[in-house]
Amino acid sequence: MNKYFFSLLLLLGLLLPDQTIAQKQIRYKDTVFTISFGMSGRFLGSSFLDFGAYSKQNSSCPDDGNFSIVNRTNGCFGDNWRRLEEDHTPNDLAGNFMIVNSAYNPGDFLNIPMRALKANAKFELSIYIANILLSTDGCDATQPNIEISIETKRGRRVAEYFTGIIPNNQVPIWKKYMMRFTLPEILEPMVVRFRNLETGGCGNDFAIDDICLVEYVEEEFEPETTLRIIKPKVVPPIIPQKPKQQPKPEIKPNLPKPPIEKPIIHMRPRPSERPLEEIPELPLAYKVNSRNDLLIQKVELPEGEFEINLYDDKKIDGDTISVYDNGKLIFDRAGLSKQAISKKFVLNKMKPQHELIFVAETLGELPPNTALLEVVTPLKRLKFYIHSDMESNAKILFQLK
Fold first, then answer.
1. What's the pTM?
2. Domains identified in the chain and CATH numbers
3. 226 or 111: whose pLDDT is higher?
């Protein structure tokens, strides 16, 4: 009796669906910053980054203790380095990445200063790293091992992450490393610190790209649970059918034909009579002069209004600048000073994009033309450093989120 009772319980357990367990999914919110190192070998953001004891070299093959911002490598040091034909950033033309030839001693190679972040919020920091070492000339090569930390400018450590040894045979070459952390009650400026834990001189050479810090939230959801019952197939019996009898032809009487009605023609309204529909603007790339347009940042903002304020970045030395919005001139040879030049914009489905191009008209006493752009939204303030000269314009793209 117990045997049959146990079998019945087992059968019921197999047929009943599992209890639904709430799971969590991640929804990304505002991006704090994205660093993709520019395009065509030019990067205008170096002035607000700290590279520790490392120095910048204008070469695709930097020496020990140096770095370069390039869009490709050409097989350096007797083809001991990989040939990277492109960066990691998708869908960009001649995009840059940063190459680091490690110093002889461990230390910081990149520090990113930040404003105070939202307290008790969750953040995700990601970076793509490629080990570019292929071989060495008779020495025992070291491999990159990087520590990433979130700290206050006073040195208080909030979060840390270790990549571990990054092998030189990883597939794909560009690999994503990511950390998530919750910021405590700290209302002061922060810094993201990248530190090389291994020695250089033989190996320990790598490239980095697409550093992104974004806020996120965790939301609970309940997955649907369905009970699938498999029914056995029932094969119907074969019943012989009687042959069909041909129906007798129906004799129709001769009736008079109905009158032919003329079709009713519905006239369409003329084009001038049709109601006009509002057509959204298409996102385009605008060219305002023959100089190169260097993209500094893409910024996604929610629907609504935002304002820009434009100042002279450093010493007031006579810089003048023109600004275009989607190819239309909005500031003509404006002089930069400590007094803001301001304008408001609207992002919505009809206007999903504002492409701002900053053209240097004069370089002032201290070239290049430097400006500080402040972006004010109902939820936050953003700051960007704009550098332009007689060869290149600076471009920032604001898009509807």
1. 0.53
2. 26-220 (2.60.120.200), 294-400 (2.60.40)
3. 111
